[in-house]
Amino acid sequence: MRIRFVSRGTLSGYLETRREGCDCEEDLILFGFNGAGEVSYERELKGETGFFEQTARLSKQARAVVVCGCVTDTRGHKRKSAVVAEEGKLLGVSDMLNVVDGETGSGAAIRVYETKLGRMGVVVAEDLYFPEVMKSIALCGSDFAVCPFSKADEVETALLRAHAFCYGVPIAFCSTGYSAVADISGSIVCASPQSPFSLCFTPKKEYHLVETRRRGFYKKHRAGMR
Asked: How, if at all, do strands 38-40 and 28-31 pair?
């Protein structure tokens, strides 16, 4: 899998670059929240803006999966979101589930997308701080996960490594001025401030049989059968 990270500049600007003869070949193009800014559903439906169309167009032009972070506006209700498109088709929009300090609204569901690259889980921005999100994505059989972010610090790198190791699913991360991939060993495979930045990466998953001991379960079961 060839991943192209765009941690600076906009999606429309990247489209213009490709029109000028960019010969890059990629399977996945991942933007942070720099890619779109704020997107109004109402204005998109009226045809006044065309962000969703641009995302689908880029995915068709590159014959790739495109994921771009943005803030979606539904009649004043704003959410941090990620738009996903593949080869000219808009696959959906994932919203951040967990809101920190009420800056935006919360979404409703975790999304795992069936793509030509495999099952792709999407962790939107600060959902990275909540292990249950990555755990759910792993339990849903994701082959890999992506995380568009706004501005990263050292803690995000630590969380990437921990989640990839604990849940056995590699994570591709893109924020403003910083991109990284964490693999299932808990290592950062590659990190770079460059934009755009490309990386060839083969996702691997890991499975183990985990056993635990608990008090009371066996006796309660036996008593219920009498």
From this structure: unpaired
Residue 223 pLDDT > 70: no
Buried residues in 55-76 as b, exposed as e (16+ CB within 10 A): bbbbbeebebbbbbbbbbbeee
Task: List the structure tokens of 30.
Answer: 């991942």
Does the domain at 2-225 match CATH 3.60.110.10? Answer given as yes
Q: Are 39 and 57 in contact (CB under 8 A)?
A: no
| Chain Cα centroid distance, residue 184 | 16
pLDDT at 208: 77
Nearest one of 215, 154, 191 to 7, comparing CA atoms: 191
What are the domain boundaries of the chain?
2-225
Closest CA to 170 of 153, 150, 155, 185: 185
